[in-house]
Amino acid sequence: MIVTDARASVDDRGLWATHPKDRDDGSLRLTDLYFGAGGAIWTLQHLAGAGAATDGPSLAHHLAPMRQQTHAYHEALGVQTRAYLTGDAGLLLAEWRLAPSPAIADALAEVIAANTHDPAQELMWGAPGTLLAALHMHRATGEARWVDLFRAGAQALEATFVRVPDFPTLIWTQDLYGAQRQHFGLVHGFAGNAFVLIQGRELLPAKSWTRWSPRLAETLAASATHGDDGINWTAGVGPTRPGRIAPVQACHGAPGMILGLADLDQPIDGLLLGGGELIWRAGPLRKGAGFCHGTAGNGYAFLKLFERTGDQIWLERARAFAMHAIAQSRADLETFGQRRYSLWTGDLGLAAFLWDCLNGKARFPTLHV
């Protein structure tokens, strides 16, 4: 139903009406991978290719104009235009996946190279995100230039993985939205950076990975907060703001830490399972059904634990969250009179999660290669 509704709701520019939860005034039709049409188009192709939906129009010809719109929007705001989830890199990759050409690949390589030393140092805007694009391209083409780009980015990340005051081991500092902080989460911090390095470890020299692997495990352990209900992670180094509690969602908190590090080749099972118990006891999120800060994202942590351990209880818990997320999506549809046609925040991300629950695998579009 989600895919059918999405195909019926797209306009003649390949765009969907922006959901009120994604943009308060609803006037801007978003185009990026995170909560825009680029992510929607990627997901529709992903679901059809996986056999979860019938084939439909690719909408590939809309992606170049979308990229131009997004680029101009970011330039007008005075921010960089290269980002993976919100900018040029992600939309170039989405375009190449549907209509490969040397020109698109060359443009993407230039963007990745230019983003190598971006100070954001996180998945959404920084080099880790664009390195994920390089990993996608290498696995699709086998070309050596993507290995070179990935290694250059990994070297830049290693140089900035350092000790800071008030934290006992190595961590990255994010220069983001006018502030500097050491975040732990998947979208804006340590877990997202670790995820990219872990997923692309075959592209790294063996000696490089032998340095990375134990260091990532050490930082995961050092950042964990242990309690009676399990293990969680705060948003970052330093005290939590007054009146706030540590989040439990994919972007910040235990779900994102599990998603980011579940494939690490280190004895970290106790930490990951403790995080899974905390997610289960906390229950589905009230924020909605989506991936980034919703029930589907938390459920994906259970799928990763099932992949790592083979323990059926994690698949059962993922499917229980899936049923709750379906009810949340239906309730939002009744409240707002429209679906949330986005990948990271809305119903298309939920559709990907439901399919993965049926198959017992975690293959979130744009994230897992």
Detailed description of the structure:
It is a single chain. By secondary structure, the chain is mainly alpha-helical. It has 14 helices and six strands. It has helices at residues 2-9, 37-50, 63-77, 88-98, 102-114, 127-141, 144-159, 190-199, 206-223, 254-261, 269-282, 295-309, 312-336, 347-359, and strands spanning 162-163, 170-171, 174-176, 179-181, 224-227, 230-233. Strands 1-2 form a two-stranded antiparallel sheet. It has a two-stranded antiparallel sheet with strand order 3-4. Strand 1 and strand 2 (170-171) form a beta hairpin. Helix 8 runs antiparallel to helix 9 (206-223). The longest helix has 25 residues, at 312-336. The chain is globular. The mean pLDDT is 95.
Short description:
By secondary structure, this protein is mainly alpha-helical.
Shape: globular
- Could you name the ranges where pLDDT drops below 50 across 5 or more consecutive residues? none
Count of individual beta strands: 6
- Give the averaged pLDDT, no decimals: 95
Instruction: List the total number of helices.
Output: 14
- Which class of secondary structure composition applies to the elements? mainly alpha
